[in-house]
Amino acid sequence: MRIAFFVNSIEGEAAHYTTAALAVAAMARGHDVCYVTPGDFVLRPDDSLMVRATVLPSKKYRKTDAFDAALKSSEATIETLDTAEVDVIFLRNDPSLDADDRPWAAHIGAMFGRLACERGVLVVNDPAGLALAQNKLYFQGFPESVRPTTLISKSIEEIRAFIADNKKGAILKPLQGSGGKNVFKIASPDDANLNQIFEAVSGEGYLIAQSYLPEAKAGDVRFFMMNGKPLVRDGVYAAFRRVPAKGEVRSNMHAAGTAAEAVINDQILAIAEMVRPKLVEDGMFLVGLDIVGDKILEINVFTPGGLPDIAALHDIDFSQEVIVALENKVAIHKAYAGQLSNRAIATL
Q: Record's family (predicted)?
C-alpha cells in the first residue's frame, strides 16, 4: 500500500520524530511512503484531488537518521499523484505550529482530508473528528472525572478569582498551543508576574487555567491508545514518563523533558477506559494521553510523539503495530467498498 504522511513541512521533520519511525516501519514492511504538506493539495476542474507529494524510492532504511537525510535530499522527488493512488493519508501535523505565521495552513489537513475520504482514501485520524479538536476546548468534552478543574477565559478578573479558589496554584496556557509553549504555574492571585504572563499568553487568544496537580512535579505519563484501546505488546504498554527538567513545570520533550519508564497501574487503565468511547466515536485512531495521578492534562490527537522513546526504553518498536493496524484497515476498506464510514474504520 501507499501511505502519505501529512506534516507541517519537510524541513521541520526530524529523525527522532514518531512520524519518521512510522515511515521506516512502513517501508520495512514493503509499503511505499510519501510526505504531503499543507501547500501540496490540488483540486482540479474535473473534481479530481491531487497531491504534489515528496516521494522516496522504495527501499528499506535501518535507521531513521538515514531516512530523514534521504527525505531532505535529492533522493526524494516531487510527484503529482491522484489521491486514488494513495491508500492511507496519515494526518500528522500540529496545527498550532502554523497558527501564527501560516494561519491558512493550520487546518488544511482536516479540510482536504475530508475531500480525500469522499474519494475513497482512508484518512486517520478521521478528519471530521480532528475538525472538532482544533484546540484544547475539545478536551472539555471528556468526562469531568478525568479532567483537572478548568477555566477558559480572556478575563484577568476571572482568572485571578480561579487562582484564588485553587490554593495549590494553577497552570496557565493558551487554548491553542502545543509543545509546552507559554505554559506557566501561578502560585497565588497576588503573583507579581500574573499581569505580565496574562498579557503574553492572552495575545494568542483564550487562556486555559487548570488547577495545579502537585504530582506533576514528578512528570506525566504519555500513554498511547490505538483504535480506542491501550497500545500494548507482550504485556508492555506503549507509554513512558516524561520527566521535567530541573526548575521546569513542563514535562514536554520540546521543553527539555526526559523519558523514563512508566508504571502502568489500574488507575491509568481506568482513565483510558473512561475516554475510550469518545475517541472511538470521533474516529481517533492513534492518540497520546498525558496523565498525572488520576487526571489527564491533555489528549494529543494530531501528532502524538514518543514511540522512539518507548523503543529506546523497552526495545519494542510499536510503530510496527501501527502499520499492521493500517494494513488491516485498508483490507476492510476495500472489502466493504465504501459501505463503512471513514470514522468507523479509523478505530476498528
A: Belongs to the prokaryotic GSH synthase family.
